[in-house]
Amino acid sequence: MTQTQKIGRIELADVLRGVAILGIVLLHAIEHFNFYSFPQSTGFLKFTDTAIWDGMFFTFAGKCYGLFALLFGFSFFVQDANHTARGGDFRGRFAWRLVLLFIIGNIDAMFFTGEILVMYSLIGFFIIPICRFNTKTLIVLGAICILQPVEWYKVFSALATGTTEVAPALDWQYWDITSAAQHGTSFWEMFKVNMWEGQLASLTWAWENGRIFQTFGLFIMGIVIGRTGFLQHNEGTSKRMIRTLLWGVVLFFPLYGLTNMLPGFVENKAIFKPLNIILSSLHKMAFMAIIMGAIGWCFYNTKRVGNALGKLQVYGKMSLTNYVTQSIIGSFLFYGWGLGWHQYLGITYSLLVGVVIFLVQYFFCVWWLKNHRQGPIEWAWKKATWIGSKRN
What we know:
The protein is mainly α and about 400 residues long. The chain contains 17 helices and no strands. It starts with 10 loop residues before the first helix and ends in a 7-residue tail after the last helix. The relative contact order is 0.16.
């Protein structure tokens, strides 16, 4: 890859980050931030709780996470390309940047067991040796990862050996421990559990549910969309967004249908589980493409909707700050060491809490960015990234 011109800030990327972080906070709120403890719902609230839970997971689960991962790879490309344009090599600094992200992720993990920054920091190291591959090679490698090679191996292995049972999930033993700490009133006890069992729970869940390869694949595809100028505004933008939207629609419905049909046609657990992971992850990626295409087209081609989406830029610019502070706020509101709202608020009211968290963060972003170019955590991450260099 040869990059001779500096890439400026791309507004659509910030909008998509804003959408991703908004979806993530709303999902985390109704999940009580990975603390699945709820009061008994009755009457109309029982209906709204179910409708909100199903609707939110259908719309956002796996899709906002996918967008966030895709844009992580895209951000690496922009930083790498800009550093290359100045005659440097960003890969060493990126490795250090990942170490710093690992530290930030562990701070986040003190409060929230479902955080993803530690996993991002670990998987990110695999970008370094492949980031100079040509674009076609990266597309093939990214597609292979997104297609879940480990799960396909499990399918063919079960077919070849006649295996019918699956090994017990590794993560549940850790979730039980973290749940007990979340119920408790000691922050110190929750901290100790989150920093070990909580991280093991999160990482083993990610491995057993196809998130490791999927994340790496999305990082790679983020580099690809950076190289191809997919998010940049030019005469071909509208056509790219429409194609993305249409391909997402074409792929989503059959994949979603197959996912729902699978239990009725596959009884072998050793085949069903990996196939379910493959199909569900793929239909979520297809829906993510629908979201990207629709938002991209509306942002660049419709005045009212585009202006409304544009307001999310400030939220997306501070995505790391918002992600980490969501965890702290949510943990305090719902866990036993804080206000313990898990025992009072069902899904409907928890969604409203998520909306309030978003609004508080959004107006903080508006206020902060009037006098600063970056969010506080973004600024600290950047300063530490370039420590010891002339840029710092």
